[in-house]
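We modelled the chain as a single entity of 225 amino acids. Its sequence is:
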Amino acid sequence: MALFPKPPHKLKFAILATDTVLLSVNQGGLRVLLMKVDRPPFSARHWGVPGGLIHPRETADEAARRHLREKAGARFAHIEQLYTFSALDRDPRGRVVSVAYLALTPRTAVARREGSEVRWFPVEHLPRIAYDHREIIRTAVERLRSKLAYTNIAFGLLAEEFTLGELQRLYETILDRRIDKRNFRKKLFQLKLVVGTKKKKRAGRSRPAELYRFVERKHKVVEIL
């Protein structure tokens, strides 16, 4: 009798998606971009971070960028993979694994997309959040706070030109603590992270402050704090 291989088992796979936490510093605080989630079992009072499924012919990185652009109309200066969230019950619609991303932008303006509502919220005062996106946001904020100490990731949150005071306030806002002005500036120059532009910026009646820019606007490891 001829031997035939056993029929293959039916494979059941999880659906793969991306979710991106886009952060910006505005109005004196760290803010996250959220979209209205209006699909069962969530009501219109729920919000979530921009995201969606990964197409068969795109990478997770490509999917994250596409969803930010198409659904939120958002631009960003930096994006990196954050963590994979795979709890069995994270999505009530079925088995969905999310590759989460952290993105940063100095801009809070977003292009309006028909049929979607997008808004910035303070990370300390979030509305009702759908799925496990509250945990994803918390993880992203912790990552940002941690990386401020040992990378130049702050470039993703500042305009091309800025004052040293603005850079220090950015750190203090995100870390929620004071930073010694003298030591902070000394470290910036020692590491050759910023360079003067020979331009000045006037704020109110105070003396004009010199404008600086990052020597490189690419992510790298540097011991700042």
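As a brief sanity check on the tokenised model: The chain has two domains: 15-133, 151-214. The helical segments are 60-72, 133-150, 164-175, 181-190.
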